[in-house]
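During the reporting period the student researcher (J.K.) took over the structure-prediction task from the postdoctoral fellow and processed the backlog of single-chain submissions. One of the processed entries is reproduced below for the supervisory committee.
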Amino acid sequence: MLTFCSFLFSRRSTLALFYLLLLYPAWIRGGTRIAVQFPMVCIAALLLLQVIVYLFRKPELRRALFRDPVVYLGALFLSFLLVQWWNAGRELILDWEGMKWVYGAPSHAWLPSAIKRADAAEMLRWFFPAFVLIATMRHAVRTSREVKLTLNIMCTSASILASLCAGQWLLARIWAIGLVPSESYCFTSFGYANHAGIYFVFMLCLSLGLLVDSAFSKRARSRDVILRSIASLAVFIGATLSASRAALILACMVLVGAALYFVWLSWHRCSKVAFVNRASSAVAMLLLVLFVVHGAGRDHLQEEFGSLFDSESARVERVAAGSVSKAFIEDSMLGVRVLLREVAVDIWRDHIWFGAGGWSQCHMAGTYLDEDRWGVIMGSGRANTHCDPLQFLSEFGVVGSGLLLMIAVLLVQPLLKKEKRHRSLLGNPVLVCCIVGGAIVWCYSWVDLPFRSPAVLYAWGIVLAGVPATLRRKALRAGSLHRQR
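J.K. obtained the following structure tokens:
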């Protein structure tokens, strides 16, 4: 019994739970289905207990935990969500003066609230594991080697998932696979194609960073370079076949950018002969990947991008022929998303400080639209504004969104503070991939909803929390960036 308890609260057990919680959502419909979210909370609670026991054994780590402002801000935000859940339950009533339907005040009008308690509970199921992962990454996964191991495990899992689903797609062309089948037009176990797309684009950034790092590392073996090349190819195929046009464009941009970055590093760090060999290899591999993906998924790519230039009658014919779903066509109409964002702004103006609660958009949108425009909110994908910062602002208000923003700033603050000390930041491929991948997801959140998938949210938070550890790596000296003679 004593041996079992020692193992249960050992470092290996803690890391095992950490990786399980990190990878679980990507294999279970992106973590968006309510039925599969309860295990995330259980794993997170057990992981939190293990981290507390582990840190209290080491006084220096315990002091660092108590001095970490991210921990306190995360606790405040979770308390904010807990109050929203406790104070939820607003009823739809008829305003006789204005002759319109409105939602009544909560039991305690001066406290944060939500429309439905079940919706507020889902926010807790999203963010509680996220903050547990971030705290674990900052205080239990501290060395650059452990950070690289975490990134390697994330990329390996994503490449296996993409490989299995790409094989299924080539054999059967049936868009439902994973541990939990999906009813929508999607790729892999994600329920929303753009969630799958941005997840694989993010993993592509990390995988290419690890690949470039191993290519210039003296400790890396040829096997490491080959395995990371295969993983990069797999996640690129996953992003390409995800039925997301934005993901395909971003994946190609990332691939070309990584090739140019590899050539630039080779120019500064290798001899002339080695530079020519590496540059030729990079160009050849880039052309080979693009040729293979285009050859395998040419029809699929033509279908996705061809719909951008269809007339209205052509779109109707495509829907009638069954070549593409009606929900997919309607979801591409930017005018609908603009209108939904205007509704989110109106909701925020009426709930400036605390927001209207999680998933308030789908409940309250009808009360801000005229009756003849109610058809806008009917259909797939209309429960969201497809702009995460704006939707979080309408749901959590200035207080909740401000807490999230301060946490994000504190996570990247070490990068901003130490940038002047490291003249060779561009010589650290792992750090560059973290910055580029995180920036891509953040920019993409302004035109879609990547952070409403726990799989993307957890991976993004882990990368931000791991940036300080990557900075602790021995950076390349300025002299090492000059070509060797």
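The committee noted the following: The chain is about 65% helix and 0% strand.
J.K. will present the remaining backlog at the next meeting.
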